[in-house]
Amino acid sequence: GLSWAASDVYKGQPHGPRFVRFLDHPSPVSVNFKIGFYAPVTSSAVGRCFAANLPTSAYEVLAKKELGDSQQQWQAFTESCEQIKADFVSVREEVNPVIPGAKAVAAPIFDAVGQIAASLILIGFDSSETVEQSSLDLISDAARDISKQLGYLSN
Question: Is the pTM of this model over 0.90?
Answer without folding.
Answer: no
